[in-house]
Each structure stands twice: as structure tokens, then as C-alpha cells.
Amino acid sequence: MATIIIDGREIRCRDGINVLQAALEAGFDVPHYCYHPGLSVVASCRLCLMEMKMPDPRTNEPQWSPRLVPSCQTPVRDGLEVRFDSEKVRANQRSVMEYYLVNHPLDCPVCDKAGECYLQDYSYRFGQAASRVVDPKHKNPKKDIGPRTLLYQDRCVLCSRCVRFTQEVSGTSELCLVDRGHRAEIDVFPGRPLDNPLQGNVVDICPVGSLLDKSFLFKQRVWYLRTAASICRGCSTGCAIRVDHHEDRVYRLRPRWNPGVNDWWICDRGRFGWDFIRAPDRIVSPQICRGGEAGRVDWSSLPTMIRLRIEQVVRRHGPTSVAAILSPEMACEEAWLLGTFLRGLAPGAPLARGPVFVEGQEERFPVGCAPGQERFIIRPEPHPNRRGVEAVIEGLGGESADLEEILGRAAGGAIRALWVVGGYPRPDWPDQALLAAAEKLELLVVQDMLPGALTRRAHILLPFCAWLEREGTFMNHAGLLQPFEQAVQPPEEALPDGQYLWALAGHAGLYRAARVREMMAAGLPGFDRPHVPPEEPEHAH
Amino acid sequence: MSGFEPVLLRNVGVEGVRTLKVSESRGGWAAARKALTTMTPDEIVEEVRRSGLRGRGGAGFPTGVKWSFLPKDRKHTVLCVNFDESEPGTFNNRYLAEHDPHLVLEGILIAAYATRADLAYIYLRAEYHELFHILQRALDEAYAAGWFGADILGTGYRLECHIHRGAGAYVCGEETGLIESLEGKRGWPRIKPPYPAVRGAFGRPTVVNNVETLACLPAIIERGAEWFASIGTPGSTGPKLYTVSGPVNRPGCFEAPLGLTVRELIEGDDFAGGMAGGRKVKAVIPGGLSVGILTADELDCRLDFTDVLNYGLLGLGTAGAIVIGDDADMRKVLANTARFYAHESCGQCTHCREGTGWMARIAERIAAGAGRIADLDLIVELCGRMGMMSGMSICGLPDGAAYPIRLIVEKFRGELEEAIGRQPPGYTERYIRDRIPSVYALPVLQAGAAPARERAVPA
Fold first, then answer.
1. Which of A50, A324, A348, B174 could join A419 via S-S bond, C-beta 3.0 to 4.6 A?
2. Which residue of A has its CA nearest to B394?
3. Using CA atoms, how far apart are residues A506 and A378, in angstroms rounded to an integer?
4. Interface test with B, best of A33, A88, A99, A106 (most B CBs within 10 A)
């Protein structure tokens, strides 16, 4: 723990960080482009320069150094005195900001980054209003550098964050710098486009509108976007994400700082793998099959109907004739609500975790790094909450069975009513064994998102909402419990799963995940205290 | 300069001196033998420190002191020989190595032995094609004779030496830019610390020395530090190669003790022999472009490490003088200077990347006859922000750009203003609007100098 003094204010800071990071963490709005806490320091943007007291080489007495020192490059040490609020520092910021606009096209009205652009913000805060440039600008070209990313070189501030990202985090080194001086450009090598599973991050770390995501290009002005804090469902890593949405439409997912889990990054599978929520044939209303005909029912009459049908089976075949298959796509709260509901009607009802798929192999980054040196891992299990569902089943006690056993019992006639939760946005769900077992049932309740062979066999069909339309918690591969907010409303007619399960369990009012977690904590200690990642310092980016 | 016997150029004109045999017959390699067989590395470092030898590459850092920064417990040391010689107007290293390659190689061996380096790289400027072959032939010969390789002179000392050719970037003459380029990367100067002496080429402690500095070593070993220190002026000891280019009678490379005045260099019979074609001196860029410029009234400036500072120059530089005759247009000198740095800025630091490009465009517009008085103020202001205060950038290039550009504008302001005054009325405005019509509506054309609060960074 070192103590440094910035503008006369004593600041206690972690050891081993640099002055810029310490200042940002203390709330100072220090302008910076090239510095990123997850990347190496190059000290090239020259915006974070500060006045510092350096030991005089002759007397060793601390003296105000006549030159300005890059704060990103200076490690904190006890007693270091720094001036940020000084005319000299401001003069440097003004001049650097003027330089940044010498060749910048000032095309904010058509730039996707406008509104969240640090060239705009810093020009406004640290720069000046009028340009003094009367000579023609050097115009660098616009380039298509990869299947998902565009490069507007004319807007670039050459902070080289993207180049360092591909070198240090993804380890794929597709990006490089070519040419010199103000003609310098970011570029890819011939025939080697920017195409790696982490490439979307270069768009996030670009402080200006130079690197743009093709799928977001010209789609929405960012000042209309609202943001929800969520957790990625792409794999079991459990990356924290931000969901940018407007009028119940999701526009993009971005990483949210989550040290130790995903740091500042997410992979493209998570970033772009949410298209299914826009599928036109999604199941949106509860349906009940009477005499071979499926018909919609009203949400308000649903709880009574389901309760009656299950009670009927229990009366006829005993309390162990009801079972449920809980999907690893569910949130912990939903699994708990469903489990307690069923156990309330049929105390011996066995619960099983639904199938877990495997997608590809574990991908470690930087590519080719030594074990233990990984900075990012994409895991092959494409579900967010296998461990959470398993923990809930275990916490509920009673009989837990594995999937095969339940299907076997259903096929053998011991299980007469089965509640199957799906929600897998994949074509290989459901498998034949499940479909075969479903044939013999008296009551099949299916919660699913997209219609398929299983939903057609369902006696009661309930919509399963995408995770962006729900709230709850996921437990990642390492057992870390992380909450996620509801970003958008489900499609018209549909209710979030938590809401109807809440009503089914006999509760009135709105479903609140935090309240369910408190109820869960009695049997599942720690569930009322999920891990919430720390906020990034306000002015860090 | 009677009485001075050339030290570095003593073999110029001797037939066949590029061969080892002739070189040895003229006393070449004797100092290396003396150093390796009778002296310890630390004795050599001490000898060089006492000789007062300062780096000839431009910054003038004392060579012995530089060597002493190497960590004591180092295992492998790399010696990089800076033969990038990219400073405009400078060709003394080329002249030296073309005429006496073995002197350079001998200096490399002594320096490598003194720093206990086991690996030496000669970072050769890309454009020196012919010189590459001359040096390579001499190096092959020296290898064959056992001056490089394993167990040199039976002392057990091993040194490998390679010639690495650059790719034509000015900034690779900066020591960390050179190291990056040598490692096969983009020639971007590194942030310091760590300094090359601690972690340089390939992560090893590294010394970077200029060719001419190393060429001084054999003489220091042979004749002693006191003899070397007796040449030149206090604080600037030893012989120095001066080059002169421009409209003089005898452009070329000359050797003299440090402290030669610019006037002697231009007018001396042993040197450039006066101006050609009856011209007068209008200006002299005395030490490579980056140090700045002298007017015709400042020719008594002594070219050593201290007197140049009295004339507002950045330093001695490489002592490669460019003489500008009275028929030259200073607007074109300014434009050419600014264009060079805009072309060579590496693009890392914002001040330098954007500042040099902006200044070049302003200077080229002035040269095209569409200048404004306010442009001169603007250039001086940009220079003030960019360089002048060393350490504002990763390397010294912006300082080296700011000195000549600012000094040209300041010292020749009268001439520049007069030229701007001769422009037809309204021409500048038309010229600018033709090129960027959007400027038409902006207040910048009407504004004079910059608003007061936009002044340069206070020192």
C-alpha cells in the first residue's frame, strides 16, 4: 500500500500500479488513449502527462521536474507528489487534443461512435472549440479488415490498443502498423483478415470511431441505448456483459469488467450468439392440448390448471410418478421455484439436470500460451448454469436422479408426469430418447423457446424466455454465483419464466430474483450473496 | 590547420588499405592487440573515461560513463554499432569506413572487449550498398585472421560480429529504435526505463556506440588518454570528422580537433576552401539538420560540445555542416526541413506525429507563396509544444525537429516576412479556399495569431 499525493490530496493506492491507474481509481478524470489496464504500456498518446516531483540527481532532494512525465509509465511509490491540476498539464492536454484533430475528418454525425467517443469527450473537456488548421487534411483510407469489423483509419488516434490486444490477449497478431508519421495506419497482413474468436474486443477498446462492428453499423445512435448488467450465456465461463438495448430491442452485447473471470473481454460466440431471441417462431403464449388440439390459455387461469393436472397424476400413480428435467439454461431461482413447486405437490418427485452439450474444444488465449498463462478461456460447455442447477437440485434434497434414469422410468411407466425445461437454442435438442419417453406420459409439461418435436408432443406448453428477458443468477464453471438483470421485455404475450413460476408457486405480485434468493438461502447457504463484480473507475476506459 | 596530424583519416588515400595486410602494415590492429593482451576491460573503460571521449553520434554522451552503466553481474552483453548515419548532411562515418574499414572494426573489437560483449552488430544504413560490401569483405578478412570469432589472440575472449542492414528509417538511428529494428520489429523507439544498458537488444544489456566514437578507440589505447585529452577544447577532446556540403569549393569530409569554427570550416584552405561561384554564406546548418541553424553573423561559433549552446543550437550533433548560399530561398529551406521530419516521424507520440505533419504543410504552403504572418507564429508555437523540453516524447526526434524549424523561423523571420509581404493581396485566402472550400466559412482565415490562452507550454 503506497500513498501518493495528487494535487495535495493523499491517495492510498495498491502497490505495483502506475500513477495514472491510481489517479483514475481515486476519481480523477485523466485523459488517456493508449493506456489500458489489460494491455502493456506504450506511453505514446502523451495525454496523461503530469507534473511530478523527482529526486534531483545531485542532491537526491525531490524537485518538481521541469518536464511533464507520462503518468501511465510511472509506478507509484510512497510519498510521490504529483500535480494534475496545473496550467502546464492543461496546456499539454490542449495542444495534444488539437493535434488529434489535425487530420481527423470530424464526421461525428455519421460516426457510430459519436456519443461514446473519447475523442469527442476529451476535445470537449480538454481541447478547444476552434480549429486553426487551414491546410488540407491527410485522409487515410477506410478498410474492411475482417468478416465482422471495419476500420476507419481516418478517425484513428493510433493508440495501438487494438494491435496490442491481438498480440497480447488473443495472441493471433493479425493487426499491425504500417507506414510512418501521420501516414501510419493500422492494417492486416495480406490474406490474413482479423478473424479470431476474441476479435470483437478491439471494437470495444477503440477509444474513437475507428474500429466498428459491422453488425452494429448504422443501427442505432448510442445515446438512445440503455444498458443492463448481465452475464453471458455462451459458455460456462460466466463473463459479465453489458446489454445495450432500446425500446425492448437488443442492439449489442459488450463486456463488463469482471476481474478474474473475464477481465475486460468477451468472446465473439457470446457477443454475437444471441440472434435466436429474434426468431420469428418463438413460443410466446401458454398452450394446453385438449383432445389433440393445442389451444392458447390465459396466463391467469394457468396455475390452477397445471396444479389440477399434476394433482390428478399424483392421486392416481403416487408421489414418485412426477418428475422434472431442469435445463442448465435456467436461472438458479427458476430451478428452485419449479423444484419446490413440484415437491409441494409430489414430495418424492425426482429432479434431474437436463442434457449438457459440448461444443468444440476449450480455447485458450493468447493462442499457444503456456498452461497457467491464459488470459481468456472459451469453454466447450455451451450453457451458463449447469453447476447452478445441480446445486439447486442438491440443495432441495429428496431424490435426484440422472436423466437416463428418469427417461428409463418414464419409458417403463413408473413416471407418468414429466416437466421438461428446454430453452436450448440448438437444433440437436431434443434427442430421440427423450421423445420416445414422452410418448408414454400422461402429462408432459414443456417449457421451451422454439417449436420442435418435443413441443408438439406437449400437453402443456409454456414459453421459455431468453436470458436477456429474464432476471436471475447463473453459477459458472468455478462455482461463482453471478446475478443478471432483465434487459428487455419478452415478446408480446410471453411472461418471463420467473414470473409465472412465482405465480405457480402461489405467490402474489411481481417476481424479484433477489427475494427468491433470500428464500433459497435457508437451504442453499450463500445464495443471498451472489458475486457482483466491482465497478470500473468512472473515468477509466 | 597546420601541425595537426590526422588520426582518423590518416590512411585515406593509401592504396589497398581496405585489406588487412596493408592496414596492419600501417599500424592497424596494433592497438587491439595491446588492449587484449595487456589490459583488462576495466582498465580500458577507465582509460576511455580519462580521455574525455564523448559520443560522436550527436548527443555527446561520455563514452566511458555510458559503458559504466552496464550492470556488473551481466552474463551476455551486446554491442550495437550505430552506423545508421541518417542525419541529413552527414557522411563522416561513410567516408571513414569506406577508406579505412579496418579502423572501424578494430574500434569495435576494443569496445566489445572493454564492455565484455560477446556479440556485436553493425547496424548499417540501408542506402549504403557499396559500403556494405566493403565492410563485409574487411570483416571476413578479420575473421579469417582471427580478430573475430572464438579465442581471439589466444586470450579466450570470443566475439561474433554481424552486419545488419537497416531498412531506411531516420528514427532507427535513435538507439532504442535501432534495437527494435535489429530485433526485427518496427523501428519504434522504446519507452525508458529500462535503458538499453540494462535491457537492450534481445533483452540483454546493450551498448550502442557511433562508428566514429569507436574509431577513436585505437588511438586512445595506443597513445594514451592524456594525449587524446590534449587535443581539442576543454570538455570536447579529441579529433573530429567534419563534413561540409552545399555551394562550397571543396565539399567533403575533413578531420580537425574539436573546436573548429564554422568560418574556418567553410573558408579554410585545408577544409571547404570558401564559397563557390562568388556566393556569400547566408546560413549554415552546422551539425546535421537537427541541431538548428546559424546565420552569416554567427560563423565564429566553435564546433565543440559547449560553444554551440551559446548560439541556441541543440548541440554539436554530427558536425555535418550544410552551407546555404545567399541565392537560396529560406522558405524552401524551411519547407524542406519540415518535410523531412514529417516524413521520418515514427508515428508513436502524438505531438511529433501530428505536429511534424502539420508544420510541413504550413511550411510547404509558405514556400508555395501562400503564407501568412500568423503561420510563422503558429510554427514557433508548435515547435515550442513539441520539442524544446526534452522528455515530452519517447525519443528525441521531435526535439530534433523543433530546433531547426523554430530557429529558421526565428533567425530568418525578417526574410520570411518580407517574402510573405510580396505575395499578391488575397492570394493566400484564394489558395487555401481552392484546396479546402470548407475553410471558407470558418473564422480561422480572419483570425490573426492564436488566442492568448493557446500559447505554448510554459517552460
1. A324
2. A44
3. 40
4. A99
Of residues A49, A91, A135, nearest to B458 (C-beta): A91
Q: In this structure, is the dihedral angle defined by the CA atoms of residues B40, B46, B51 and B52, taken in order, positive or negative? A: positive
- Work out whether the CA dihedral B295, B297, B301, B307 comes out positive or negative: negative
pLDDT for res B449? 39
In DSSP notation, B133-148 reads: HHHHHHHHHHHHTTSS
**Which residue type does A63 have?**
Q
| Cβ atoms A334, A326 nearer than 8 A | no
Stretch 167-206 of chain B: residues touching chain A, C-beta under 8 Å? 169, 171, 186, 191
C-alpha cell at B26: 600501417
- Indicate whether B115 and B160 sit together in one domain: yes
What is the DSSP track for B131-191?
HHHHHHHHHHHHHHTTSSEEEETTTTEEEEEEEEE--S-GGGGSHHHHHHHHTTS--PPPP
- B269 Cβ contact partners less than 8 Å away, ≥ 6 residues apart: none
Residue B445 pLDDT level (bands cut at 50, 70, 90): low
pLDDT 10s digits, A171-196: 999 999 999 999 999 999 999 999 99
Measure B372 CA to nearest chain A CA, in Å. 11
Q: Which of A352, A303, A222, A296 is nearest to A501 (CA)?
A: A303
Cα-to-chain-centroid distance, residue B46: 26
Beta-ladder partners of B244: B252, B321
pLDDT(A74) > 70: yes
Mean pLDDT for chain B overall: 92
> Is A44 in contact with B355 (Cβ distance < 8 A)?
no
Burial readout B248-282 (b: 16 or more C-beta within 10 A, e: otherwise): beebebbbbbbbbbbbbbbbbeebbbebeeebebb
Domains identified in chain A, total number = 3
- φ and ψ at residue A207, rounded to 5 degrees: -75, -10
Chain A residues within 8 A of B351 when measuring between CB atoms: 46, 95-96, 99
Tell me the per-residue pLDDT of A93-123, one tens digit each, with 9 for 90 and over.
Answer: 999 999 999 999 999 999 999 999 999 999 9
Closest in B344, B444, B457 to A130, CB measured: B444
Q: How do strand A287-290 and strand A460-463 relate by DSSP bridges?
A: antiparallel
Dist. CA A143–CA A146, nearest whole Å: 9
Cell triple for A264: 475486460
Does the predicted TM-score (pTM) go above 0.90?
A: yes
Query: Is residue B8 a part of any domain in this protein?
Result: no
Where does a domain end: A78, A97, A116?
A97
| Domain extent for B263 | 234-325
Q: Does A44 touch chain B (CB under 8 A)?
A: yes
Determine the Cα–Cα distance for residues B28 and B99; give it in Å rounded to an integer: 13
Contact A99 B342 (CB under 8 A): no
> A373: distance to nearest CA of chain B, Å?
20
A164 contacts in B (CB within 8 Å)?
Answer: none
**Measured between CB atoms, does A87 come within 8 Å of chain B?**
yes
What residue numbers bound the domain in which A513 lies? 287-357+383-520
Residues A112 and A88 grouped into a single domain: no
Q: Does B450 touch chain A (CB under 8 A)?
A: yes
B344 with A88: Cβ contact below 8 A: no
The answer to whether the beta carbons of residues A157 and A119 sit under 8 Å apart is yes
Same domain for B56 and B122, yes or no, is yes
- For residue B238, give the CATH number of its domain: 3.10.20.600
**CB < 8 Å from A in window 345-384 of B:** 345-351, 353-358, 361-362, 365, 378
Q: What is the CATH number of the domain that holds A107?
A: 3.30.70.20
Question: Residue B145 CB: number of other CB atoms within 10 A?
Answer: 13
Ranges of beta strands (E only) in A363-492 are: 363-365, 376-378, 417-421, 443-448, 460-463, 472-475, 481-484
State how many domains chain B has. 3
